[in-house]
């Protein structure tokens, strides 16, 4: 899926795409041509360049863009990500966190307005927030996109619906709310979240178990090595979410 990917990795992508519930995901033409197109998409996400400026070695620029957008609209990139991430089995522990991404001016003008396209105003200006779950190795398991001003504990309600079976969930103080703790416990997991300083009654918390939570922060840093994740250029939230799923797949699951 990336440039110079080993053949075994490409065969895994082919198998998942071939089994997709969406007919649009069926790979067409020679395996080499399909691989070249997907490698070209990864190149654009890595470099941050315009689709029109993609090197000709990857084939027609319009083909790269159309494949990216059509598979994004049908959820194919997300299907590939989840299929490969699930292959590792349920993790014993899960981390939860978020990161803000500045929206470039080219991201303005999406259908339905900024709110519909997950762009909002926060201290950093016009931003989008990527919420994520990861395993103890910092490998991403699920993502959620919101406007930049949305609080972590608010987004957690939807994100936790995507949490795999686990025994323990680690989150920072931004997730210290009764609703979040209840949601975690309903999933038969134990929350390990440091209590806010102003709370009279402190929930159980283990600093020793919490010490490895920064793996998810390093995960976000690795995703942002790709320019189109570090800065959002896409008007469509669907397209930006697809870019996140592609990069997460390439960086961690291939």
UniProtKB/TrEMBL annotation:
Family matches, as Pfam families: DDE_Tnp_1, DUF4096
Highest taxon above the source species: Bacteria
Transposase IS4-like domain span: 94-246
InterPro entries: IS402-like_dom, Transposase_11
Region (Disordered): 105-125
Domain Insertion element IS402-like: 9-81
GO MF: DNA binding; transposase activity
GO biological process, one term: DNA transposition
Record key words, sorted: Plasmid
NCBIfam families reported in the protein's UniProt record: transpos_IS5_3
Protein name: IS5 family transposase
Organism this protein belongs to: Azospirillum brasilense
Species classification: Bacteria, Pseudomonadati, Pseudomonadota, Alphaproteobacteria, Rhodospirillales
């Amino acid at each position: 899926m990336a440039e110079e990917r080993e053949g075994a990795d490409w065969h895994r992508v082919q198998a998942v795409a071939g089994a997709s519930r969406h007919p649009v995901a069926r790979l067409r033409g020679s395996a080499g041509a399909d691989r070249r197109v997907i490698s070209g998409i990864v190149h654009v996400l890595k470099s941050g360049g315009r689709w029109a400026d993609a090197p000709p070695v990857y084939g027609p620029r319009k083909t790269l863009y159309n494949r990216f957008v059509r598979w994004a609209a049908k959820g194919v990139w997300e299907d590939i990500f989840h299929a490969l991430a699930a292959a590792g089995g349920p993790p014993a522990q899960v981390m939860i966190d978020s990161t803000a991404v500045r929206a470039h001016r080219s991201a303005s003008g999406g259908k339905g307005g900024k709110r519909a396209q997950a762009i909002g105003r926060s201290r950093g200006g016009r931003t989008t927030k990527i919420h994520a779950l990861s395993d103890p190795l910092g490998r991403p398991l699920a993502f959620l996109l919101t406007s930049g001003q949305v609080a972590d504990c608010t987004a957690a309600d939807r994100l936790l619906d995507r949490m795999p079976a686990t025994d323990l969930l680690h989150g920072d103080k931004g997730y210290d709310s009764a609703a979040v703790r209840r949601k975690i416990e309903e999933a038969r997991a134990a929350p390990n979240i440091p209590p806010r300083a102003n709370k009279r009654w402190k929930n159980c918390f283990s600093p020793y178990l919490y010490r490895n939570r920064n793996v998810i922060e390093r995960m976000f840093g690795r995703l942002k090595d790709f320019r189109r994740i570090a800065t959002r250029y896409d008007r469509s939230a669907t397209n930006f979410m697809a870019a996140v799923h592609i990069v997460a797949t390439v960086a961690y699951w291939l």
